[in-house]
Write a structure and sequence with these properties.
Layout lengths: L3 E8 L4 H16 L5 H19 L8 H6 L2 E8 L3 E8 L19 H8 L2 E6 L5 E8 L9 H7 L9 H7 L20
Antiparallel strand pairs: 1-2, 2-3, 3-5, 4-5
Length: 190
């Protein structure tokens, strides 16, 4: 099952967050990795919330016209032999930065939560546009075998017409862009 990928896309609106949690939960169930569900769904939720806030609307119920003009966000879950990676793409090129929220602040806790739940997290600007924020979790148990039936059930969700950049940014044919922690990262051109 090394290198198995599921991905999901949705308009950048609040409804993307619970839909992304359900997508992650279903993929983990299909992979036999339910023991990671709590951590992975929370990471996906936090990263999706940040992506929606950075590129879309926080309006609870955007009109159909508003929804048609919103960009997409995308989530990719990737399982390799020893890790599970949660990646979230959005159209903003502004990389996230960790903040220390005040005790009574309503925002700013997402990345600290991701830091606590993952082995590591990082972000990069994607060559096709936007950015990807990802978190890597170690696999403590081997994943179950994937069959074509379970792969079809967890496939892509969200809107029917994908933003081509979302498809390129998080397609399963893209070479993985999660850096090896033992290698130095290449410098980004400005």
């Amino acid at each position: 099952m090394d290198g198995v990928t599921y991905w999901f896309r949705h308009t950048a609106e609040p409804r993307a967050v619970p839909s992304g949690r359900r997508f992650a939960s279903n993929a983990l169930r299909d992979w036999g990795l339910e023991h990671l569900s709590e951590s992975v769904t929370l990471i996906a939720s936090e990263l999706l919330t940040n992506a929606v806030e950075a590129t879309g609307t926080t309006k609870a119920e955007p009109s159909r016209g508003e929804r048609e003009t919103l960009p997409l966000v995308a989530v990719r879950l990737r399982v390799c032999s020893r890790t599970l990676t949660v990646e979230v793409w959005d159209t903003s090129r502004t990389l996230p930065r960790m903040r220390t929220p005040d005790a009574d602040a309503e925002n700013g806790r997402g990345l600290p939560i991701v830091t606590l739940l993952s082995e590591r997290w990082d972000s990069y600007r994607h060559p096709s546009g936007g950015k990807v924020v990802y978190a890597v979790l170690p696999l403590t148990r081997p994943p179950a075998a994937i069959t074509p039936e379970t792969a079809d059930e967890a496939g892509a969700g969200g809107v029917a017409e994908p933003d081509p950049r979302a498809a390129r940014a998080l397609s399963s044919t893209n070479s993985p862009r999660v850096p090896d922690p033992g290698r130095p990262r290449p410098r980004e051109r400005r």
